[in-house]
Amino acid sequence: MYSGLCMWIFEALDHINARLAANGILVIALPYPLAPANLYPAPIVALVSQMQNAFTHSELPIDASRIRLKGFSTGRNLGLAVQQLDEAPEVEATMVFCPPVSFALTVPEMLETRVPAARSKVDFLAPWVPRMEWGYIPAGTSLEDPRLGPKFASLNALSEWMFVVGAEHDILCAEAGKMVAEWLGEEYGEDGRDETTGKDGKIRWLLTKWQEHSYDHGIPPVMANETPERLKERKRLDEEIWKKVEA
Question: Which of 76, 60, 69 is nearest to 90 (CA)?
């Protein structure tokens, strides 16, 4: 599933999907309707319908016992939400990058959860968070609804295998890291956790150091004022993360 709650270019993840396909994985890209024309839970319901069509009415060689979900940004949130619905096909594993897992905090509170080294830096995503919340969440919706904020979901409602990647300077990072730490009965800590694994290796957290939200996409806010040296380092870290994912 691609990124973006209110806007995105579907083809922006073609290079990642192609990389997975080159490793022998059957990749099905699932678009979803965008806010504000489609408020919560419309995108989740639409994704369930697409999954049912793709996995049960397709002529593709799909092994229904080995369904994995991959999502980026909002697609990561929706990926964790959709598998909680009874109508959704059973998901064996989930891989999410920089997921928004809770809407319960204000932007100032989220900025304060970042690691100390990141708190003095401007987060390009911060001004967009309240706009996306306004455009997506209907008035009166509980912010602790587990399908809206997967941080509040029971681990038993999610896939058996979970791989979560955070970006250290991302406003969304700490909440995702705390979610994984709670799954494992651990503390995330003020300085975060670089890497942790638990539940017999079935749950894994990986932190991309010094990077911002959507560092893996090369979108304009990430690339603004980026020196050749920083671009090279960002690409190196992204490749390092993907090698760990593929392992």
Answer: 69
